[in-house]
Specification:
By secondary structure, this protein is mostly helical. The chain has four helices and four strands; from the N terminus they run H-E-E-H-E-E-H-H.
Length: about 130
């Protein structure tokens, strides 16, 4: 079993996260946020309506709508890093900065750690000052 499927099977439990009248805005995870961050081998022009691979949104719909939204989560915009195996170190660093900006633009993180210094270190790292 792949890691993601295992996480879905063990984490999104019927009757708790979904089932009966518990779906979409009434789902067990209502009030929670989810965001996909993916790397993909293809280039952007390959992932459009008439591209070789078709539209990326069509590929992601089962997980975005059929899993995350179905269990009640608000789904934030996906971050996509294209053509990752073939880019330079400089381009990778640029992607990491884009990812940091994407995270910042979506929401403030609430860290579950009880240790305030750990939370501070995590926040510094997110904001690029660590």
């Amino acid at each position: 079993m792949n890691i993601f499927k295992g996480w879905i099977d063990r984490g999104l439990i019927s009757g708790v996260c979904y089932g009966g009248k518990r779906f979409y805005d009434q789902g067990g995870l209502a009030g929670k946020k989810a965001m996909l961050a993916i790397t993909i081998d293809g280039q952007p022009h390959m992932l459009v309506k008439d591209g070789v691979l078709g539209e990326l949104n069509d590929m992601l719909k089962p997980i975005i709508r059929g899993t995350l939204a179905y269990t009640g989560m608000a789904v934030l915009p996906t971050f996509v890093a294209h053509h990752v195996p073939y880019i330079s170190q400089e381009a990778r660093a640029n992607l990491l900065e884009q990812y940091r900006q994407h995270l910042r633009s979506q929401y403030r993180f609430m860290f579950p750690a009880s240790n305030s210094s750990l939370r501070a270190r995590c926040a510094l790292r997110l904001h690029g000052t660590a």
